[in-house]
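Supplementary Methods S3. Complex input for the flavin-adenine dinucleotide-bound model.
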Amino acid sequence: MAIVRDGMPPFALYQPASIEDALALAGRFGANAWVLAGGLDSLERFKDRSILPGAVIDLGRIDALRGVSQTPNGDVVLGSLTTLTEVAGHPLLRERFGVLAVAAGEVASPQIRNQGTLGGNASQDARCWYYRGGFQCYRAGGNLCYADTPEGMNREHAIFGASRCVAVSPSDTAPALVALDARFVIRNGGGTRTVAAEDFFVGPADDITRLNVLGPGDILTEIRLPPTWAGATHYFEKVRDRPVWDFPLVGIAAVIRTRGERIEQARFVLSAVAAKPWRLHGAEAAVAGKTPRDAAAAAEKIAADGAVPLTHNAYKVTLVRNLVKRAILGKEAA
Ligand SMILES: Cc1cc2nc3c(=O)[nH]c(=O)nc-3n(C[C@H](O)[C@H](O)[C@H](O)COP(=O)(O)OP(=O)(O)OC[C@H]3O[C@@H](n4cnc5c(N)ncnc54)[C@H](O)[C@@H]3O)c2cc1C
Ligand code: SF4
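Predicted complex, serialized as structure tokens:
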């Protein structure tokens, strides 16, 4: 088991000033390298020795990875190192992709949002305390899940999509990025690939050792938002233990297009119920063509279909049903 210490272990630090230099370093050190953005997830793990990288590649000096811009075809491009504070306050995002701006503004505390980056927030690892505490569970390469036992502390864990591991995706921005059909641009020594948000995040049945497709040598350079959901009605809510700052117990990011009195199309994506942002495909189909009141009733009825609660997290089923209803009717009317 890892021991939490006050001192940071030594590591080789590289601070490239260009993407090309960062890619060369990432290629050179491969699986022995650790890419560092804001460091909020990473430094904690170095300190408790759960990760001991041979080389740390700090992207902080690469200005080309920061900022928000717009392409002629209407895509909004966010550099992976753009801080959560900038995402939350950026006028273009607030106006066109409000669900992402609100989600970024709900992450942790102002200090963490000032330092934490969008790419790092979306790429952060599981927060299961057994795993973070150094237990040799499935996700850490062992042959047991400590959370999914009758005595396991699993109040915060998954109700959907579990496969041996029941850890959840803790990111607030991830469900908003899936709802908006974001595309993740990833570079490595071999070239550039663009991955749809839904394929960027991975569940334990596909790969139990990571929450996303980033592998050795990869650098996430930007996240692109296509105009598909620009200006749509949106809703974001995060249920947490402490409003001051906390990870989600369950969250919802929703975008809705209406025609007249009826819902034309909707996206409902949940955080903290599965190892990846969890789309409610059934509820999305059920609301199309309905008035908000009928849509809310239909969505609530089926939103939690397929949920498999653990010993201590059946309350998440109720939260899922209520959150999807609120996403359609608003907090007060639901
Ligand atoms: C006290 C506390 C409370 C928190 N509360 C919340 C919360 O309520 N909601 C929430 O969503 N999050 C929360 N977080 C998580 C926090 O937001 C994330 O740790 C942070 O956003 C990670 O961003 P970072 O830039 O610091 O990433 P880093 O720690 O630098 O990186 C995180 C991971 O992403 C990888 N990575 C980062 N950028 C790139 C890139 N460009 N290319 C390839 N790989 C990359 C790193 O290798 C690492 O694996 C909390 C964290 C703390 C410490
Ligand atoms: S939930 Fe996943 S990360 Fe947590 S103990 Fe089980 S296998 Fe490990």
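The longest strand covers residues 250-259. The mean pLDDT is 96.
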